[in-house]
Every structure is written in structure tokens, then in C-alpha cells.
Design brief:
With 174 residues, the protein is mainly α. It has one domain. α2 packs antiparallel against α3. It is elongated, with a radius of gyration of 21 Å.
């Protein structure tokens, strides 16, 4: 009986510790995903501003050049824009966000901001697209700075709380 309780307590502590580390890793991954997204939006802005590239062609160029967690998103977006299915850019963008960004660490707020960005991006002239890209980059910078400031403390908190919760539950069960 004592061995069963001991093994159970060890498993509880181990699983809650792993859960704490999982949430800590998700937070760090979210910061990295936002930084990668910022880099891609800067590339998109550069293609539109300096290359005078139309938006669908710029997205296609990024899909070909980029290898990362957003590659599937840009490839899907490029394919859907190339089909000329009659959907608006905002609809295609929203569909790509909802279907291709499931495996990223972006939260609902990030995805909703990305969808809103797509709604404002697709139907404007070149100058307004650049202004929209600049505004989104500013918002992204603010989010990254805010997350970076708190990520270290929250990461430590998640890890510690995972360990402590496991110990607490184990003590209660004994």
C-alpha cells in the first residue's frame, strides 16, 4: 500500500511539473512566433514598398522564401489567392489563419488581431497597405515588448507552480 501511494505521489508531482514546464515553453514559443511574424510582415512591407509588388505576388514570394512555422499559412494563402475563387482577400486570409495557424503558440487575441489585420489589408491601394502594415508592425512590437518583459517571470512562475501544485496535491492525498 505504501509503495502504491509513493508511486502515485511521484506521478502526480511529475505530471504537474511537466504541465508547468509545458505552459512555460508555450509562453516562450509565443514570443518566438510573434517575432517570426514581425519578420515576415517586414518582408511583406519591403516587397510592396520597394519592389512595387502586388500583394498576392508578395505573399507568394514570402511563401517560397520562408521556412518556418508560418510557411503553411503563406503557402495556403498564396494558393487560395491564385485560384481566383471569388472570395475576398479578407475571407481567404481569415480561412488561412483559422486553418493553418493551429500548430503555433499564438493565442486567440493574436489570431483575432491577425484576422483584423487581413480585413484591413486586402482592398486598399499601395500607400494604404503600407500604412496598414506599419500600424500592424507597431502593434506587434508593443505586444512583443510587453510579453518579453513578463515572459521570464511568468515562465519561472509556471514552472514553480507546477512543482508546488504537485507537492500540494500529493500531501493532501497522503
Amino acid at each position: 500500500m505504501l509503495i502504491t501511494k509513493t508511486v502515485g505521489c511521484i506521478l502526480i508531482i511529475l505530471s504537474s511539473t511537466l504541465m508547468g514546464f509545458y505552459y512555460s515553453n508555450e509562453l516562450k514559443s509565443r514570443v518566438n512566433n510573434l517575432k517570426e511574424l514581425r519578420k515576415l510582415i517586414v518582408l511583406l512591407r519591403g516587397d510592396i514598398r520597394y519592389g512595387n509588388t502586388p500583394l498576392p505576388e508578395a505573399i507568394c514570394a514570402i511563401a517560397r522564401r520562408h521556412e518556418g512555422s508560418f510557411k503553411g499559412f503563406f503557402v495556403r494563402l498564396s494558393e487560395k489567392l491564385g485560384e481566383h475563387s471569388g472570395n475576398t482577400f479578407a475571407q481567404v486570409w481569415m480561412e488561412a489563419v483559422n486553418s493553418e495557424l493551429l500548430n503555433t503558440s499564438l493565442n486567440k487575441k493574436d489570431k483575432s488581431g491577425l484576422i483584423q489585420f487581413g480585413e484591413n489589408l486586402g482592398y486598399l491601394d499601395k500607400e494604404m497597405q503600407i500604412n496598414t502594415l506599419d500600424l500592424f508592425l507597431t502593434q506587434l512590437e508593443d505586444e512583443i515588448n510587453e510579453l518579453s518583459k513578463t515572459a521570464k517571470e511568468k515562465s519561472y512562475l509556471y514552472s514553480t507552480l507546477g512543482i508546488m501544485a504537485g507537492i500540494f496535491v500529493s500531501i493532501i492525498l497522503l
